[in-house]
Amino acid sequence: MTLDETRAFMNRVLDHYASDVAGMSAAVVKESGELAGWLGLAVPHFLPEILPSVEVGWRLGERFRGRGYATEGAAAAIGYGFDVIGLDRLVSIFEPANVASGRVMEKLGFEPERDTSDPHTGAPLLVRELTRAQWFAAT
Questions:
Q1: DSSP E strands: which ranges in the chain?
Q2: Tens digits of residue pLDDT in 46-73
Q3: pTM of the model
Q4: Given 3.90.700.10, 3.40.50.10160, 3.20.20.190, 3.40.630.30, which CATH number is that of 3-138?
């Protein structure tokens, strides 16, 4: 993202912390303290057609990809969503070209829910879902 896009994103995140059931968190590499990106749970306000829902998502810096951080962090967020918040269902959303994120979702047990597009940019999006029952049956 550009600096302006990053600022706008951070302002949206901060606004939603006050009103939503969950919000994204910084992803920090335990061994080094480096900021790798963000991950966690958030309400996907940008895609109203799937609301009400809570999304598990991540965005990691390029040099932090492929190390298992997305899978590990998302699994912890899923557990928190089902165990602590008491959600019955989670979604995860990605652009089809982001094959790596799609693989993480498959690994975590997410199944296709719908194909759609971003209402602001028109970019194609794939929505995947995971229910509490599916998660607990697999873990």
A1: 24-28, 35-42, 55-60, 89-94, 111-117, 124-131
A2: 999 999 999 999 999 999 999 999 999 9
A3: 0.88
A4: 3.40.630.30
